[in-house]
Amino acid sequence: MRSPVRRTAVRSTRGQSGIAVGRGVAALLTAAGLLTTGISGAAAAGETPPAAVDPASGAHTETPALVAGLDEEVPATGSAADAARGHLKAKKGRYRIADPAGDLKVVDTQARGRHETVRLRQTYRGVSVLGGEYVVRMEKQNGRRAVTGTSGKYFTELKLDTVTPGVSEKTAVERAVGAVASQLGGGTLRRPADGEARLSGSAQGLTILPQGSGVLTRHITVTGVNPSDGSPVRQEVYVDARSGFPVLRYSGIKTFGGEGTAAGTTDGGAVAVDDQPAAADQLVVKGTGTRYNGEKTEVNLYRDIQGVHQMIDYSKRAADSPYSGPMLATYDARGREAAAASGRWPTGVKTFRSATPELGEEFTDSGAIDAHWAAGKVYDYYKDHFDRDSIDGKDGFVQSLVGVVSNGQPYNNAFWDGSKMVYGQGGGDYRTFSADTDVVGHEMTHGVIEHTANLVYVGQSGAMNEALADYFGNAIDLEADQGSMDDPDAGLLGEDLCVTRGPRECALRDLNDGATTSKDFIGVTYRGDNGGVHLNSTIFSGALWDMRQDLGAGLADQIVYRALSAYMTPLDGFTEGRAAVVAAAQELGATKDQLRTVKRSFDAHGIVPGWEKALGVDTDTILNKVNIAGTGVGAGGGKYAVSNSDEDGSEPYSVWLGNTSGQGRPQLMSENNGDYNVYADTDGTTVAWVDFSANGVLIKTRPVKGGIVKTLGGAGGNVSALAVDGDYVVYTVTDPTTGLQHVGYIQISTGKRALVDGGRTPWSTALPSVRDGKIAYAKLWPEADGYKLGVEVLDPATGKTTLMPIDKNTTRGVGQTAITDDGVHWIEDADGADKGQAAVRRAGLDGSGPVTITPESGDGSLFAYSLTASDDAVTVTTLPPATSWANDTLPKLFQVAADGKGGAQRVSCNRGDQVFAAADEGLRVVWLDGTTGSTNLVKRDRPAGSC
Predict the structure, then answer these.
(1) pLDDT digits (tens, 9 = 90+) for 844-888
(2) SS3 per-residue string spanning 493-529
(3) What span, in angstroms and rounded, lies between the C-alpha atoms of 298 and 290?
(4) What are the tens digits of pLDDT across the range 360-386?
(5) What is the torsion angle, in degrees rounded to the nearest 10, for the CA atoms of residue 285, residue 289, residue 295 and residue 299?
């Protein structure tokens, strides 16, 4: 019989966060406070019931989510904003907004015909509230103005100190950068890319997260380059202002094809255009060119004073105002790095230009013709159908950068960065990503969304953002190319991007795929695809597209645009989106049959209140709705240790200990000190964790059987992983001055502490494990002929180190280590010619008897990303590379016997994220699972086999 075992829990899977995304970003903020918009409700006591009221949209607000069917008169003179806030004040009993004039700041006012729409952003004691936004809709005609409805989220339970944040901007920036660095480091230590740029952070001010009574944070934007692949980075990080722990983190880029990869600080400006027009006849010159599909077309150009024809379109300007107004410009960014083109302008970039108005093959192959032509079509669509003046509604410039690369390689994607569209050069079977009009329409619509509902790009709100961009992108594509909704390929997106593959093989998404929430929703953390913004978008876009097929393009487009521009607000999820579309249809005079069609479309895709409860799993749930972000789980000796918060997620995290069997109640182990207690681990005898406070990052322990909490000392930087066994605690810390990671250890009994690499620069160590007084870790170090990679074992009692049998010169990456009774296990990526697989290997602690548990290529190979091991089995987290998102591209768990015999089996067939796996005794594994749309601590005692 084997003795109780220690193993090393997975601490990071591409920076996985341990909280799954349910309805909008609110589910990130609190897994328990999922927004639940009803279909009916009652008005507040003492109020005359309006025609329709949906109740408050969550546990932290009494303000109704949607009020429709009003006809309540307000002053016809004065501004629309004053009238809107005056209405909210006069109806305080209905809206529960104490001080509309002081707490609601005007975001935007739009007037279209008789309709006026005022967007108001919530502040609390002068600090913005993330996602707190309320919309007032009015009609003004014949000298009369009346409120017709309201919608949004105003959080009424906020009660917090906003004056005395305990953490400085400097500390918040350091911890935000450290958090992103550890996320990007993920599961593998690799050699740095040539000319690698360090990450940097910029403070955006204070922001309140609307969890319970509110959490005051410092909003930090972290930008730079991903060291693993050279792709650009832009992360929005919210650091708790009292303790300094990053409580919310997500990518700030809106892409067409997959995970957000943009960087830089959006300044909203434009690169200067050479030689501004001096004469009206220079403004619009008709050029000709050929689109990718072979179609000859006209494009509008501008002839500068040197006679050069630039890809600038001034044709949208009024005849009596030729020198002011909208401008559509297309810039040559071929060979420029996406990181340099995101949120900023690459140095010296210029518009595409030609000596003659006849644009040759180069303009076709570069994607310039399609980008420029399609941008004009998108502008015309929004102007002709909705009287919208450009992306921002104020005739702001429309700017496109075409042909960027990533780390010198093709960039098969496109994105909106807050001020412009950026299209990848493409490679392999992909053309430049401006080659399909629906891609151009999609990216420009992201800009429209940003300037209307501004749906937060995470979880369901992010999936709705993607869905609306897909819907309008496809609608514009069909109109521009005179396509038909009856075409079976009408719902395909990106179908024209490929050189050889047909539309259905090429398309990245299909709005006619029939996906429904009850069957196909994929619960993911915001590590992956920003919480499923692409994975789950067709749930909502499919409903909208069905509606368009049944109602016709004209009415459906008007309904969807009205819902977006006048009803939706930043944190809306699927059911709020449904309510907005239904209400917009009613406002626009849809008949009873048409309303039934609208509702039937959503019903068919499972978008009904409570749909999340229908999602099934094959695991045993130990803890429901674990309200944590990115702090992992540890296990050993029949016990688990995990961080958790209160039901609404507003309390700082505490460490809880329980039985991996699921029996009994968990026990609180950390102090209730207002700090964030995270990265917990246990060996069944001791619990260890990290305490984030304004004064530093501390390592703490406590015996499983109870006793005092022992502070072992400060870590000296951001800690991103921790493990405990016997008398030793090991952890990974990020040096705030260099950005490098180092493995540290502390001996609990003596307090002896050190960094295994001495903290040397540019050495780096990471991914540690500990067992029986030995420490294993991945190691990167410089020699005269370049950087070397390896796995090393340290005996801290003697100081002896032993390198494992790895080719230090050719190995491309080293992953998580785990020590068991027969040696040390690790992940090794040695073959650059495979499809991204990595081997799982084992050797004795002295380096003897190396064994390959799973091969890097061929039969039995895995996309090994991280691992955890008991004496009986190795559990591997896999993460396949992907150009688009699907269930099988998410982190999944496989288990293989310690000797590798019998091959790997799936641990669980759950559809969602499977992250932070921690091996206990025997074959039992616990992990954080996102399948149900919230994060649950689950376990299995043996593998499920095949799925």
Answers:
(1) 999 999 999 999 999 999 999 999 999 999 999 998 876 667 788
(2) ECCCCECCCCHHHHCCEECCCCCCHHHHCCCCECCCH
(3) 9
(4) 999 999 999 999 999 999 999 999 999
(5) -30
Give me the pLDDT at residue 46, please.
Answer: 39
> Residue 818 is which amino acid?
A
Give me the helix-helix angle, 459-480 and 437-450, nearest 10°: 130
Question: Does the structure show a pLDDT above 60 at 644?
Answer: yes
**Class for the domain spanning 189-255:** alpha beta
Q: What is the DSSP letter of 132?
A: E
Maximum distance among all Cα pairs of the chain, rounded to whole angstroms? 91
Q: What residues are labeled active site?
A: 443, 534
Q: What are phi and psi of 226, to 5 degrees?
A: -70, 120
Handedness of CA 140, 145, 146, 150 (dihedral sign): positive
What span, in angstroms and rounded, lies between the C-alpha atoms of 717 and 706?
29
188 pLDDT higher than 50: yes
**Which of 648, 573, 571 lies closest to 609 in space, CA to CA?**
573
Q: What does the domain layout of the chain look like in residue ranges?
A: 37-153, 189-255, 263-436, 457-613, 626-940
Domain 263-436 has CATH 3.10.170.10: yes
Give every CB contact of residue 595 below 8 A, 6+ residues apart in sequence: 582, 585, 586
Minimal CA–CA distance to 234: which of 194, 299, 183, 307? 183
Q: Residues 10, 918: contact at Cβ < 8 Å?
A: yes
User: What long-range pairs does 480-483 form, CB within 8 A, spacing at least 24?
Assistant: 480/374, 480/377, 480/381, 480/437, 481/437
List of long-range contacts for 319-325, beta carbons under 8 Å, 24+ apart: 322/277, 322/280, 322/283, 323/277, 325/395
Angle between helix 537-551 and 459-480 (nearest 10)? 40
Q: Residues 6 or more apart from 272 whose CB is under 8 A from it?
A: none
CATH 3.30.980.10 is the classification of domain 457-613: no
> Which residue's entry shows tokens 């690790």?
826
**SS3 of 410, please?**
strand
**Contact (Cβ atoms closer than 8 angstroms) between residue 262 and residue 219:** no
User: With contact defined as beta carbons under 8 Å apart, do 85 and 101 qualify?
Assistant: yes
| Residue 197 contacts residue 224 (beta carbons within 8 Å) | yes
d(CA 842, CA 822): 9
Residues 6+ apart with CB under 8 A from 406: 229, 230, 231, 232, 261, 337, 338, 339, 424
Q: What is the pLDDT of residues 916-938, one digit of tens each?
A: 999 999 999 999 998 887 789 99
Give Cα separations from 406 to 197, 261, 338, 598 (angstroms): 14, 10, 6, 42
* Tens digit of each residue's pLDDT (9 = 90 or more) over 660-711: 999 999 999 999 888 999 999 999 999 999 999 988 999 999 999 999 999 9
Architecture of the domain whose range is 626-940: 6 Propeller (2.120)
Q: Is the pLDDT of residue 527 over 80?
A: no
Using alpha carbons, select from 474, 455, 693 the residue that is nearest to residue 574: 455
Q: Has residue 279 got a pLDDT over 60?
A: no
Query: Where is pLDDT greater, at 643 or 257?
Result: 643
- Percent of the chain at pLDDT above 70? 88
Cβ distance 7 to 820 under 8 Å? yes
| β-bridge mates for residue 510, sequence order | 492
Tokens, residue 96: 């529960």
Query: 623-632 b/e with 16+ CB inside 10 Å = b?
Result: bebbbbbbbb
Query: Under a CB-based contact definition with an 8 Å cutoff, are residues 853 and 815 in contact?
Result: no
Phi and psi dihedrals of 661, rounded to 5? -70, -20
Query: What is the C-alpha separation between 875 and 10, in angstroms, rounded?
Result: 10
Contact 899, 851 (CB under 8 A): yes
Distance of CA 691 to the CA centre of its chain: 26
